[in-house]
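Recall that a protein's primary structure is simply its ordered list of amino acids. Everything else, from secondary elements to tertiary packing, is in principle encoded there. The following example makes that idea concrete.
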Amino acid sequence: MHERAEHLDFDIRFQGARNELTQPHRHGYFQIQVGLEGDTQQAIGAAVRPFGRGYLSFVLPHRMHVIPHPPGSRYCIVNFSQRFLWPEIAVDELDLDGLAFASHPELAPFLFQEYLDFAFDAPDFHRIEAWLEELRQYNAERSFGGMAMVRGILQQIVGLACLRQERELQRLALHQGGRTSRHDALQRVVRYVRDNLDQELSLTDAAAAAFLSPNYLANLLKKETGQTFTELVTERRLDRARELLTGSSMLVREVARQCGYGDEAYFNRRFRQVVGCTPRAFRDEQVARLRG
């Protein structure tokens, strides 16, 4: 947070305060962006949603996002650490989207931003603008009581978003178990691996294709599948190899190439380590089994 803010716990800035980021990025702190003037779109995770005056964007730590603000637009960016607002949540930032909705409903706008628009009517947004001005003043002073007020105002902003989208947030939590984002992210990774098995695959490239950070992806795979990225790729490559060996007359070296192994000898070794026999022996066994 120190790269984009004056303070590590909480900071607020309005447009023009720093060079703005125009490419998808992520960071290890919470962020709320507020649209004051001008219409654009926000990209968050794999979703693209509208953003303009009266809209708030709730960004969870490590979630890929960007809001390209056009010339003449006005906006406010609020950054804060997990410890600053929710010190009682003893969960690593990478695991926040796995928390149960019922235990921490105040996280709902951050968990479900990819699926909802947080747009406020004129009276509500007038309150939000007044809160932003208070946050600016308290942050400039940074007195003991002022920072306590900052926490209270942040809770009110998040609470208002929860109140106005209560029905939809509860529906998402009920029908998708609070795990929609993680499930969708994992599916994007699996699709990327499946579609690129004949290419070199890296954790960094897969994370970028799935709109994740490499650290988040590594953590997600370990939590959800118990595998590393390398183990996932090896499993999928050898699954593909079994399919090709069984269902085609393709030469073993071509099977190896189709599964991302440029070296046939290395492919043979890896196949035997996992399957227990060579690719040729596996094919012979499958042919014999199918014949009778």
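The first strand starts at residue 10 and ends at 14. The chain has a mean pLDDT of 89.
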